[in-house]
Amino acid sequence: MAPGDKIKVLIVDDISETRENVRKLLQFESDVEVVGVARTGKEAIQTSLEVQPDVVLMDINMPDMDGIAATEAIRAKQPAVQVVILSVQNDQNYMRRAMLAGARDFLTKPPMGDELISAIRRAGAMAISEKAKAAQVQVAPAMGSMAGTNYSYGTKGKIVTIYSPKGGVGCTTIAVNLALTLNNEDTRAALVDANLQFGDVAVFVNEQGKNTIADLAPRAEELDTEIVEEVMVKHAASGLHILAAPSRPEYAEKVTGEQLSKVLEYLQKLYPYVVVDTSPYLTDNVLSILDISDIIILVTSQDIPSIKNCRLFLDLLQTMGVDRERIIFVMNRFDKRINITPDRVADNLKQPVATVIPLDEQVVTKAVNRGVPFILEARNQPASRGILSLAENVRARVADLEANGESDRVARR
Description:
Radius of gyration: 23 Å
Largest sheet: 8 strands, mixed
CATH architecture of the largest domain: 3-Layer(aba) Sandwich
Strand content: 15-25%
Strand order of the largest sheet: 8-9-7-10-6-11-12-13
Helix content: 40-55%
Number of domains: 2
Number of strands: 13
């Protein structure tokens, strides 16, 4: 926050005494300004649109609409607004529902004064930061100039696929945070959730879109920038464009491998990086993605089943004639206390471990539950440093691919 900035707060509670007590508490904070109050969930949604707060203090139990539903509605209309839930019930289920709805924090009523002020300041700093980023995104070229992604030079973008033959090793976490790291004004990125039955990318970034990849795939033969713009979800905090997985598992059957390949190849015309999250099963769709990928980020953890499956996958790639130079091998959730080191795994699989992402459970789990990827907030944490290292490896590999491609073109002349 810049000096002199005040955190604008909206207080929502159906009990007038509570509203007044909170207002009195906050009036002594020089960096906080109460800009409005609301008595119900519906009134909170309307008032929030009118007063444009940074932070909403939201009671969870109200007569017309509970605080969780109101939070979800506010965040859908105003993604930068941060909500702090207040509840008399210190219940883990309430807390999880609140966080999934987009709440920034959850406090038990009545909160301690210092605890409430600290929560407001944390949420306020996040709101002001996200509003600034959103303003930058709005002045940047929108999707129609997606050659307006500043990507009008004649090179195709690179498809970077994150894959593991073992579920639960953190592929989606890596895909989301890597895409956000690669995405900037010079090299825009698209993030594609190709885990068609149970994709979680949209949840990881706390975004919802009415359209998904199932809406785009049937139109794979007739794609243009307007059609793509209609379907892509725009992450408000970063400007990242996301192609979400189908909203229901049965819709995955509507998407064929051929359609998926054509969609990804079209996105290559619009973005320097197309980052693809996949499921662990080698379905026709996943094989189609791997076949056209420029880079395959193969993810393992330190457990033996994960390493064994990666060995089988590398053997399969060799059978398929896939060059191992396309592989960036990553060890995720590395724990120094476990005696299975990256060097040992590399020697065993005859594939160098290019990037090690340390175990950082508290940071990663909190980020997932809040829907705020850790690379946006905790850039100095071990997991973030691992992602930054991976991004540099990807950029270096892309540079090698482009240099080799140029060498091939020169040789053919």
